[in-house]
Amino acid sequence: MPFSEVIDRHVGHRRLVGLLARSVYRRTLPPSLIFSGPAGALTRQTAVAVAQALNCLSPRGEAEAFDACGACAACARIARGAHPDVFVVEPGDSGSIKIEAVRDVIDRAGYRPFEGKRRVVIIDEADAMAAAPQNALLKVLEEPPPSTVFILVTARPDMLLPTVQSRCQRLRFQLDEQAEVDEEARDVACRVLERAAGSEEARLRIDAAKDLLAGTGAGGREDREQLASHLHAMASLLRDVELLSSRASSMLANPGVRPQLDRLVKTFHGRRGLAAYEAVDQALLALDSNAGVKAVADWLVLKL
Ligand SMILES: [Zn+2]
User: In angstroms, what is the span from residue 51 Cα to ligand 1's centroid?
Assistant: First the structure.
C-alpha cells in the first residue's frame, strides 16, 4: 500500500512516513534501515510502501507528499508479493528465519534489478534471525550492492547483533508529537536561526546550539523529543521564509513572528534556506535513529 494509505490506517505517524517519502524523493534513503516499532502491521506496511515508492511506474507528488500510485503493474506486483526486485523474508513454521533464506536473498541481491529501479529486501521480524543468519547478512550490510535497500522490520531491535544495528539507520515508529508548533519552541528556533544568520564563526554557532538544547537534561527519550520539538519549529519557520521569498505570505504558519521572518528572509532565501531545511530534516532523522542530542545540535548549527 502507498504511504498515503499507511497514514490513513495508522493515525499519528504522518511525520515519520513523510520523512521516508521525502528521502525516497530526494534519493537520500540510506541503503540499510531498521524499522522498529510496535509489533503489528504498521512497520511492515511502511516497508512495502517504501518498496512501492522506489519502484512505482507513475509516482506522484513531491517531497513528503511523494508517493506510489498504488495501481500500476509494479505497485500491484509488490502488493501481491510477486515483484522480481522486491523480496520479503519472514520466519517460517519454526518461528525462526533460517540462514538459507538469508543467503538466498543475498545471492539474488547481487544482481542488478530486473526492472531497472531499486531492489528492496524486507526482512520481517528480523529478530527471528539467530546469530549465524545475522552474520551472513552483516557482510552485505557492510558493502550493500548498489541500488539495493535492506529494511529490517522488528519490534525488538535490541535482539539484533550490535554489529548489525550499527550498520543500519534505525527509525523508531512512535506516535507523532502534537503537530502544532509550540510557542516556546518557536522562540528558541527563531533565536538560533537569527544567531546563525548573524555569524559564520564556529564558536558563536556552537554557542547557539546550547539554546537548542534548552530543556534537555539527563539524556534519553525526553531529551530527543525536546530537541525534536525545537527542530520542528525551525523547519516550520524555514518553510515560512521560503513562502515569504516567493511572496506567498498569506499561507504563513507563523504569522505571529512576521518581523523576525522578514529579517530571516535576508539570509535564508533561496539556496541557503533549502540547505538549512534539509539539514533540519537530517537532524530529525538522526534523532529518530537514536543519535545523541548534543551531537545533533552541534552538527546542525554549523550547517545552518
Ligand atoms: Zn505505481
Answer: 10
Q: Of 271, 279, 281, nearest to 304 (Cα)?
A: 279
How far is 1 from 51, CA to CA, in rounded Å?
10
CA of 238 to the centre of ligand 1 (A): 32
> Which among 151, 171, 14 is positioned nearest to 78, based on CA atoms?
151
pLDDT of residue 178: 44
Q: How far is the CA of 66 from the centre of ligand 1 (A)?
A: 12
Element (H, E) at 172: strand 169-172
- Spell out the alpha helix ranges (H) of the chain: 3-9, 14-25, 41-55, 73-80, 99-109, 131-142, 162-167, 183-198, 202-212, 221-245, 258-268, 271-288, 293-303
172-221 pLDDT, tens digit per residue, is 887 665 445 678 899 999 999 999 988 888 888 888 889 899 888 777 77
- Weakest-pLDDT range from 117-121, 174-178, 258-262: 174-178
Residue 265 and residue 131: Cα distance in Å, rounded? 53
**Separation of CA 140 and ligand 1 centre (Å):** 28
Read off the pTM: 0.63
Q: Are 192 and 231 in contact (CB under 8 A)?
A: no
pLDDT digits (tens, 9 = 90+) for 21-80: 999 998 989 899 999 987 678 899 999 999 999 999 999 999 999 999 999 999 999 999
Write out pLDDT tens, residues 234-251.
Answer: 988 998 898 888 776 767
Strand partners, 35: 153, 171
Cα(54)–Cα(75) distance, rounded to whole angstroms?
A: 10
Grid coordinates 520539538 are at which residue? 229
